[in-house]
């Protein structure tokens, strides 16, 4: 039996450590229950795979897939939720690679997993946390007769569109946090004359501000 959603805790390094990109896990024992709790049998789950993509913020379970939400890192642990928020725990209790972990669906439902983690040595966990905090869909305000949207993805990619009169422009590429700003860098192949090669947006209490002669702000919407 697969519960569709949950909360994850897995070991992570200090702020300067490389960012965890993904976790690949396989059930090696089911069930393995909380002390003094009765278990429901779920032996058919042994061998099933779980994968967690922390760059794209998605997960794949045997009978479910969806978005990872509310990801945080604190005191060497990473916590996040899946789907509708049913309580899960995925805790690194071993050493080396692969390591032993446990996935809790409820107080009566806990699976023993063997997992491997993949890291991005170019991105620290602190950088990844900041990216996840700023990721979202933004809309421009404060610029007359101009409509613009900006999608910042947690994997470091962005999509930007703007409409001004009869002119429509679109740019895609990579983004990163640079000091107190978000820096958008257009990808090669965005056209001979993209709207910008680089665009710097100042971070201001969750909004992104345009600098220069044309002033406006991108505000994030749910």
How are the secondary structure elements laid out?
Elements: E1 6-11, E2 18-29, E3 49-53, E4 58-61, E5 64-74, E6 77-82, E7 90-92, E8 99-106, E9 109-124, H1 125-134, E10 136-141, E11 146-152, E12 157-164, E13 167-178, E14 181-186, E15 198-204, E16 207-209, E17 217-221
Antiparallel strand pairs: 1-6, 2-3, 2-9, 3-4, 4-5, 5-6, 7-8, 8-9, 10-11, 10-17, 11-12, 12-13, 13-14, 14-15, 15-16, 16-17
Describe the structure.
This protein has 1 helix and 17 strands. It has one helix spanning 125-134; strands spanning 6-11, 18-29, 49-53, 58-61, 64-74, 77-82, 90-92, 99-106, 109-124, 136-141, 146-152, 157-164, 167-178, 181-186, 198-204, 207-209, 217-221. The strands form 2 sheets. Strands 1-6-5-4-3-2-9-8-7 form a 9-stranded antiparallel beta sheet, with helices on one face. Strands 10-11-12-13-14-15-16-17 form an 8-stranded antiparallel beta barrel. Strand 8 and strand 9 (109-124) form a beta hairpin.
